[in-house]
Design goal:
By secondary structure, the chain is α/β, with parallel strands linked by helices. The chain contains 8 helices and 7 strands; from the N terminus they run βαβαβαβαβααβααβ. α3 packs parallel to α4. It is globular. Bound molecules: NADP nicotinamide-adenine-dinucleotide phosphate (NAP).
Length: about 250
């Protein structure tokens, strides 16, 4: 695909950009002209590969930060490193996340708290750190990656569904609070998307899953990435507090 320059001169931070949707998003934002701060937790080599692609393919600047976003300190570290590396951040994509299948009655306090910390609280703490310089510059784009499970619930992951639903309320609130400063806050709600998180389940139950998706296809990470880039664009300034489902028309998986 050829390069476009919608995001020229902007700096983006994408959490969890070593793999999957975050990786595709980092590459798409760079393709559209942004400099990109990459973040990873454990997949250092994968993050370095993304950085090298951004430099060689799109000639954009990039910087990598490592952190466990299940801790407040990890979130603060990302904010501090990002602002040191690039002075300001224009686009923040809260993408890092994980899901685990645990029976309701066996769900420990630790796993409940960790899921909320990684899947929800990291968006809050990093947004809180990045908002003041965005307000000074009267421009910002916050985009949260939620999940179909926020809408449908999950029989095997109430901790994941609750965290992802929390992102919807957080984004709506920040849209009200930050909108007057030129900062928009929107949420993307992916359905089944082919990444490491879902590959095994999709391989094992492909036909059953496809039969419930009206468009009969699993989304690719690049489809989510293009929607992120659209919301991140300066031209999308009236889209605030929106929730964009990208799921092929499935709203209630079993
Ligand atoms: N795939 C789907 O079908 C689907 C559907 C709905 C929503 N989503 C959401 O989309 C987002 C991206 O998912 P994906 O499918 O691309 O997943 P993925 O391929 O498993 O990638 C997850 C990313 O999050 C990072 N991460 C995980 N735990 C972390 C932690 N404790 N601290 C910091 N970073 C952490 C990982 O970093 P390292 O690899 O460096 O450790 C990785 O970069 C997630 O929020 C997920 O909930 C995905």
């Amino acid at each position: 695909m050829s390069e476009t320059h919608e995001l020229e001169g902007l700096v983006a931070l994408v959490t969890g950009s070593s793999r999957g949707i975050g990786r595709a998003t980092a590459l798409e934002l760079a393709r559209q002209g942004a400099d990109v701060i990459l973040h990873y937790h454990q997949a250092q080599e994968a993050a370095e590969e993304v950085a090298s692609l951004i430099r060689s393919r799109y000639q954009r600047r990039t910087f990598i930060v490592q952190a466990d976003l299940g801790t407040v300190e990890g979130c603060q570290h990302v904010v501090q490193q990002a602002l040191e590396a690039f002075d300001h951040v224009d686009i923040f994509v809260a993408n890092a996340g994980y899901s685990s299948h645990v029976d309701f009655e066996r769900l420990s306090p630790e796993e409940w708290n960790r899921s909320l910390a990684v899947n929800l609280s990291h968006a809050f703490f990093i947004a809180q750190g990045l908002a003041p310089p965005m307000k000074d510059r009267k421009f910002g784009r916050l985009i949260f990656i939620s999940s179909l499970r926020a809408r449908s619930g999950s029989p095997h992951g109430p901790h994941y569904a609750a965290a992802k639903a929390g992102l919807l309320g957080l984004a709506k609130s920040l849209a009200l609070i930050l909108g007057p400063y030129g900062i928009t806050v929107n949420t993307i709600v992916p359905g089944y998307t082919l990444t490491d998180m879902t590959r095994q389940a999709i391989e094992e139950k492909r036909e059953a899953i496809l039969s419930r998706i009206p468009v009969r296809k699993i989304a690719m990470p690049e489809e989510i990435a293009r929607a992120v880039a659209f919301l991140a664009s300066p031209a999308s300034g009236s889209i605030n507090g929106a929730i964009l489902d990208i799921n092929g028309g499935i709203y209630f998986p079993s």
